Amino acid sequence: MNLKSFVPHLIAIGIFLLVTVLYFNPVLFGGKEVSQSDILNFKGVSKEIVDYRAKTGKEALWTNALFSGMPAYQISTQYISTNLRYINNLFSLGLPGPVRMMFLYFLGFYLLMFVLKVDPWIGIIGALAFGFSSYFLIILDVGHNSKAMAIAYMAPVLAGFILVFRGKLIAGTALTALFLTMEINCNHPQISYYLGLLLMIYGITEFIAAIRTKKLVDFAKQVAALGIAGLIALGVNITSLWATADYSKYTIRGASEININPDGTPNKNDMTSGLDKSYATAWSYGVGESMTLLIPNFKGGSSEPIGKDKSALKDVQPDMQQSVGQMYKYFGDQPFTSGPVYAGSIIIFLFVLGLLMPMQNKGLKWTLIAGTIFSIWLSWGKNDPFGLSNFMLDHFPAYNKFRAVSMILVIAELTIPLLAVLALNELSKSFNLKESVTLAFKYVSTKQRIFFIAFALTGGIALLCWLVPSMFTSFSSNGEYDELFSQFKRANSTTDDTQIKNYLDQVMPFVQKARENIFKADALRSFIFILLCAGLLWAYFKKWINFKIAVASVALLVLIDLWTIDRRYLNNDSFVDKKKNNSENPFALYGRPNTADLEILKDNDPNFRVWNTLTRLDMDGTTSYFHKSLGGYHGAKLRRYQDLIDFHLNRRNMSVVNMLNTKYIIIQGQGQGQDNQVMAYPNREALGNAWFVGEYKMVANPDSEILALNHFDPSKTAIVDKRFDDQLKNFSPKKDSAGSIKLTSYQPNDLVYESNASSEQLAVFSEIYYPSGWDAFIDDKPVSHFRVNYVLRAARVPAGKHKVEFKFEPKIISTGEKISAASMLFLLLLCGGAAFTEFKKKSAAVQE
Question: Are residues 695 and 669 part of one domain?
């Protein structure tokens, strides 16, 4: 075995490690960490689960910490497949998160370069370009770690597919199985789904090639090999996938049962079988906004004040600078954004070069072109003028389960640098060959024409944007003027409408001028980088510089280009002192409760809920850290609970608040100074963990059921959907006023009550009804239970003294774990066998 062949790869890994260390130096050596808001929220909503695991060594498959109770599948549940973290730690050299994500971005893409037999030095350029794509750093800043990890494994999965379709069935199957397993295990279905779309496109191009070359038998073998790899990956992750699939039917990602609005009028929203279209497409890229791939601030950049960029205000008259400085830089079609999707001006230039160049692997080239177009097109979402987005939402399986359609640009962020690097690799081969190609200006060869066309389509457009910016955009978003008018009107209700309009008419031209300055600066910047890269390539073609100097120079330019853009979003302001953050963060770092929390924590009752009125119910991860909360923070909450929020909790229906056993309400103090602290208001009307009711009201459907909660007394009446009428046959409720039912033992998966009554009672439990996994028992014998009051559980309890118990025992977990263990063993055997086979082949080749 030739050890020298490993040297370039070891150097590449060393470069990736060095670049990662330099970027995250404050984390690795400065005692700091990235202040990731989503991770803080995750720590809040997962605390009950983590604490239960630490105390019992078991998994809390259900948690009451957020949204009054929900399955823990998509929060912090650990399965057998969780042990894959050891493989992930190996690949990332044990680097801490989110530092490891950047290194994995680089390493995964470089592996793809190795499979494609790209020159290692050019492969380094591609890896750096992919890893520094602006979106990938922006998501690290806010804490989308599972998304980042899933993105990192996209390239290696594609590498495995390519190996299989190139005839290396054993190695390709093993590689695909391993990295597809890791990809799925990242638990970000949306990214994995988008990767699946790209792999589907690649499979179609290979199928067409197989038809043309009459190799359908080989294609069938390759598909079978990939099928085996897919089954292994699914098998290892089956528990999580199965639980998630079962759970999703009952979440906001599933179909809604409600056909009305909170005010009772018909719901005219554009619905699919998944998310509401308006919700799914709220974050849609504008058609013109796609130009951010070439010019980062084509739409102003992020939703931060213009005043943060002092140079933008240079043409704004002094008396208007303060007003203009408060306006947002961003003027695109999204509600707001943390930053643009920027692939790199040099990379876009090379990508366009790749579009125009003939390549040996036509199938892969067309996959990358189709994937890029498909990705950009679907990212337009509600702004799509051709209807593809609506078609996908209405007809393509599971596409309507995901929100933020702009996220599909992750495909383009993979395909663009890949085609760009393949183009650069082709150029290096072509111009190293001793061909009779004249590079003099007197004779313009085909290659030269391609080169100049690519330069004109990228650098030329960037230059035009700088010279004639108004040709490309208006520097204000659709409806911005009206929205600003409404905001000013709300803030200054006594101000005359004419005065507000006059003010906006005066300030908006200066806002547009400031945004134009931001736009022009980046347009010129992109042009300069493209010009420098083109100049380097031209010097190489002319043989003024050698290959290594050209590649090193292009790599440095790519790094500078993307690094400086990324530092706009993940920079020194993102790094906070670890000790200070741990001690001063209001909830996440182990015990800094506010005055209201401290008061509530004195209550030894094991199970009650808290309503924090100081924040939005669906954006509240903080309360869950200390208490069982009415609110929470999660992207897949139960659909019925979201309905309850929309119809009743947001409208402060106290009957609903009381039936949820809301024992404390956090409010703002009304005094001054110390007296103005948050307060814990005891809600003495809370109904407790369970109670008996003397009557029930049968309703026809979910619409009637949720509306019935507007005017009812939950302490006396239960609202029952007629689908459960069989549960109440031959039953005439009569509340025993002397009877009692109380909680005697609380665990997330196991609730035990003691009931005592002189006659059979209808008991309502202040726990969320979930039909898949909860079992009810009376004196350890299984009994049925059903849903009342739209979200709660109920059961008939016989006369006398009894133990009533609810256990969360989803069968899919126990069955799934057995399949997962067997699949994990098979995966290890496959990878070991493939490695042994490849080693034997290499050894035999060396001996020959």
Answer: no
When mean pLDDT is compared across 37-41, 208-212, 334-338, 410-414, the lowest value belongs to 37-41
| Closest residue by Cα to residue 338 from 147, 99, 525, 623 | 147
Domain identity same for 343 and 317: yes
Listed residues 544, 561, 582: the one ending a domain = 544
| Cβ atoms of 803 and 754 closer than 8 Å | yes
Cα gap 384→302, rounded to integer Å: 22
476: Cβ–Cβ under 8 A, 6 or more apart, which residues?
Answer: 331, 508, 511, 512, 515
Residue 679: strand pairing partners = 667
Are 329 and 480 contacting, i.e. CB atoms less than 8 angstroms apart? no
* Direct distance between the N- and C-terminal alpha carbons of the chain, in angstroms, rounded to an integer: 11
Q: Which of 619-623, 741-745, 768-772 has the lowest mean pLDDT?
A: 619-623
pLDDT-based confidence at residue 272 (cuts at 50, 70, 90):
low
**Across the strands, what pairs with 266?**
260
Indicate if the pLDDT at residue 267 is higher than 80.
no
Indicate left, alpha or beta for 12 from its phi (over 0: left) and psi (-120 to 50: alpha).
alpha
| 167-176, 366-375, 433-442, 561-570: segment of lowest average pLDDT | 433-442
Examine the domain organization and report whether 821 and 781 are in the same domain: no
Q: Which residues contact 741 (CB under 8 A, 6 or more apart)?
A: 690, 691, 692, 753, 754, 755, 756, 757, 761, 763, 797, 804
- Total structural domains within the chain: 4
pLDDT in tens, 74-111: 888 899 999 999 999 999 999 988 899 999 999 999 99
CA–CA separation, 138 vs 302, rounded Å?
10
Q: Which domain range does residue 694 map to?
A: 690-809
Is a pLDDT exceeding 70 seen at residue 31?
Answer: yes
722 and 744 fall within a common domain? yes
- Give the pLDDT score at 737: 86
Residue 669 has pLDDT above 80, yes or no: no
DSSP 64-80: -SSTT-EESTTTT---G
**What are the distances in angstroms from CA 613 to CA 54, 262, 586, 674?**
31, 20, 16, 19
Residue 486 counted as domain residue = yes
555 domain-assigned: no
Please give the model's pTM, rounded to 2 decimal places.
0.90
Q: Are 665 and 685 in contact (CB under 8 A)?
A: no
Query: How does strand 786-788 pair with strand 792-797?
Result: antiparallel
- Say if residue 336 is in the same domain as residue 270: no
Residue 262, pLDDT score: 84
Residue where one domain finishes, among candidates 528, 544, 560 = 544
Distance from the Cα of residue 734 to its chain's centroid? 50
CB atoms within 10 A of CB 540: 21
